[in-house]
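re: that complex we talked abt at group meeting.

here r the seqs, copy pasted straight from the sheet so there may be weird spacing, ignore it
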Amino acid sequence: MAPVPSSTSSAVTLNINGEKHQLTVDHRTTLLDALRERLDLTGTKKGCDQGQCGACTVLVDGRRAVSCLNLAVAAEGREITTIEGMAEGDRLHPVQQAFLDLDGYQCGYCTPGQICSAIAVIEEHAAGWPSAATEDVRPEAGPPPLTPDEIRERMSGNLCRCGAYVSIVQAVTRAAEAHEAAARDDDRADRHENTEETAA
Amino acid sequence: MTTATTGRAALKGVVGTPHTRVEGRDKVTGAARYAGEIPFADLAHGWLVLSTVARGRIRAIDTEPVLALPGVLAVLHHGNAPRVDTDYIGLLGMPPDPTAAVFQQDRVHHVGWPVALVVAETPEQAREAAEALVVAYDEEPHDTALTTGHPGAHPAGGVMPGETAKGDLEAGLAASAVVVDEEYTTPEEHHSMMEPHAATARWDGGRLEVVDSNQGTTWIQGELASMFSLDASAVRVRSEHIGGGFGSKGLRAHQVAAVMAATELQRPVRVVMTRRQMFSLAGYRSPTLQRVRLGADADGRLLALEHRSLNQTSTVHEFVEPSAGVARVMYDADAHHTANEVAPLDVPSPTFMRAPGEAPGSFAIESALDELAERAGIDPIALRLRNEPEVGPVSGLPFSSRNLDACFREGARRFGWAERDPRPGRRREGRWLLGTGTAAASFHAGAGPSTAVVTAQADGGFTVRIAAADIGTGARTALTLVAADALEVAPDRVRVRIGDSDFGPAMIAGGSMGTRSWAWAIRLAARELRERLALGTTIPPEGITVRSDTTEALGTLAQKERHSFGAQFAEVAVDTATGEVRVRRMLGIFAAGRIVNPLTARNQLVGGMVWGISMALHEEAVRDRTSGALYAPDLAGYHVATNADVGDIQADWVEDPDPDDPVGIKGVGEIGIVGAAAAVANAVWHATGVRHRSLPIRPDRVLSASVPAAGGDPHA
Amino acid sequence: MREFGYQRADDVIGAVALLAADPDARFLGGGTNLVDLMKTGVERPARLVDVRELPLDTIEETADGGLRIGATVTNSDLAAHPDVRRRYPALAQAVLAGAPGQLRNMATVGGNLLQRTRCGYFTDLSTPCNKRAPGSGCSAITGEHHNHAVLGASEHCVAVHPSDMGVALAAFDAVVGYETLNGPGELPLADFYLPVGDTPHRETALPPGALITGVTLPPAPVAARSRYRKVRERASYAFAIGSVAAALDVEDGVVREARLAFGAVASRPWRARAAEAVLTGAPADGDTFAAAADAELAAARPLPDNGYKVTLMRNLVVAVLTELAEETPR
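got the structure back, here u go
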């Protein structure tokens, strides 16, 4: 039953997967519960509800975050992307495809969080962010290569009790390589364009 | 109307070839709905209230203030809840755990005993009301500490005899050239599957429907029907996607509470356990205190073997963790004694957890074997192969197949075992001491009666209906492959529907028996259907349906020792300055019957090995003696392995089709964890020269136990 | 969780005023600790004042060459910042070791300093805990305490501070800036956390209603060669059982300057000044490092099950300082 606005609830507009949703939320409602109980976006999972498992990971303004410790009322004005917003129509996101092809899951309950996290991990790495597995964090050392150890550490905020970590690392590796190859292609295309412009 | 064709292309068969999960797309897009995610109109939310005392009596429950809170619809407790029947034996041959028969008594049997259910319009309201409910207790002294020689300890059976004995143990030990006599302990461990238990109950035209997360819809249907005195046909349980089970997802307080509330309120009620509640209500693996005595001649041949194990149970339900059962399958000796004992304490009821008995039992006996190898100066693999029994050491029955030697030989070759210096503390790399270890594994292979329904459709497709459960095992996909082969069609023409008790009785996903049991039933029906179609039968619009039941076929199986086997290898790095232990690589080679889907089976075997790492190094629920409650019962306080804890883990198998199974299946759900913790612990000894006989091997224990490794310069 | 009011603050003074208006109000930053504590019932605020949108999200160089880090800078942005990584690498490492990415993206610098202990008795409302319920007793001293304090604790509380970031900040003499209705103020990190004594529920010296606005790191050339090492009970996503932030400046084999702070051993990030005194001017070798550790740990008062922490910290200090000493000066 939806609450009415009062001193302990508010009317908010949540921007989720590019769609605006207007609803009144009890201030106690987490972003996770708003997604699952109010908006029927149940792809985001509740594993612990305490920020201790990562199953509820979504992207907030493009960065991964646990939705169980975000209050829905505080999420107003932010762009939320959930697992339901990752595929383009029938075309899976490359990370989703890699998880499917390489069996990067078993029961599937941690999977949406793993995939949201992995998409962010690839972006964070591309942005040059170090991790706890990075030997030398100084910028002079350059960005660390995305080795299995780097992926393991960066994906450690997502518990998988089925123990599918080995294939999760394989899936992230494959998707990251595809991402890098695409970035190189873009780079080449840009350079090619620039060359042509210069030539012209 | 069409005539079914059976393609020649399918003759080669798809069983044994890798296939991605048929529900994979739904799982990676978030479309797969788990139990707590199915919408219902007019849904109310229940929140369980658990006791804060370990033993005593509920004196009063002050419901009035809570009923006045916004949105609160009802407070169920022992004073007003419907009565249920607990005097029955369920599908697994056991009486129900009274913990699940909620609100039937004013006694409190452990911290976390369910004392009330608050139902409200929203989860937020239910939670606040549940937290606000004041329950007064008459507290009594409690005992929650499992100790060697506990006065309540007694031998206990369960799924197997409590004790077995042959030969004169003391004489055998006295005659032995080498003796090991050590105690091993494993702590309280929790399943901690990612999806919390969740159930929604509603009445639908005189029929009870429960949407639940469980390991067997037939099982839960039967339990709820018995408990609420309903005809089984008046209960429908659905469980399409399950976020992990590992033995915990049976009948629990949440389903019963949801049914009670739905009955009282006459509207759908959902009850979801919080993660912290799961640590009291979802079952767990009991801690074990084990003693192993081994005696062998100078060549390492066992003359005497004793394995005794003590576990705790609750005061309301006896559950035996049969750790001493391992030796009844693995090793023989003229003097051979095994005993499982149990002591009731004021603690929650333990239950089945991935490889019950084998997981902790193999840690003890496979560690002891390693100690025997060390003392006898014999290679640990050679020692094990030297003690391969011809027949079941206790039963005297032949093995259906036993390819343990093949597992060890293949594993040793691939792991590089031959290059291993047997002396401990010899390899160093920077701050890390390196070591390798091995252990054997076995797990019972069986099947339970199941029924299946296979329909040939007029459009050329086939639908299989079976009350199977895919708890992450890949069962749905494996069964699709089995059905396709039996029907001799491509798998994309087969749709397997599972997780609905309306599909007829079937085995649970448990005991590594699910896929085998269901595959048997599906194959039976599919073969009959294929024969009927081969006659050129035309398919009417409603299709042609064949039903099967494997009860009779299973009854004719000859008595044999039926098990999967495996050889586990681990390489660890230990920093003795900080106590950190890392598992760098593991290899498991298994003889586990015919592998239906290598892609998912490998994943599952590796997952079992990851459980072994987690058991060896991380998992431990600590009970506070004063309060009787668990300390920090959540996923930050109870550590399961993270991605960073898992190095290069590989699993593979040798040819080992079960000769008595129509598909050749044995089961792969549990064998992966068996022996894995022992292999890690044995590797830690090899790295450091220190034996760890108590799990988990935490940094503080490595630091406290740290003594200079025997054998000179560690840099050598 | 009881019902509560919620307001988003637009400016610092407004935030402080909103909080002052309601004695049961709390500031909401990233929420990674507060919202969790509200779910367990440890915190039951009547109102949340959301400070995430305040313009305190920058990292700037100070006039003297230090860094000023805004209170709402996320842990992620702090650890990714080139100046932090270059000039205070141990701080970046500590933050990266602190929590997984999806929490670091939420958690703020101000909130991190105000994290509450993860002692299991603190979060279990049915057990005594002096920090949560003053006067009720400490369950850990006679109960589970293998990850509790060995330094600076009292018979009233042996809980440890969970922050990794704070350990590095302690080593680098960070100064916490705050705002109150009566104007701004500053507290060196060394004075920010109160001794446990018989008031474990009083954790910081912040005036009532104060809002942390930022943290200033003074210039510290020694910090350019610094390191954070954390030991925990699994390889990632766990709180420390012992950690060390260390910086070392060695010339001609002699320690010119050293910074050392310990985590997970006390109710606050523990600056190891006694150890630093031993190190300064001494030969940069294993004997000195061990003597320094021993000097600091002489004050340790372990309980029956956490004595290993003394060994662990001694070994960690020696290991980390040895690594730093062996690093070629750049």
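couple things i noticed - Residues 249 and 256 of chain C are 5 Å apart (CA to CA). Chain C touches chain B at residues 1-3, 40-41, 118, 120-121, 123-124, 126-127, 139, 142-144, 146, 231-239, 241-242, 305-309, 311-312, 315-316, 318-319 (CB under 8 Å).
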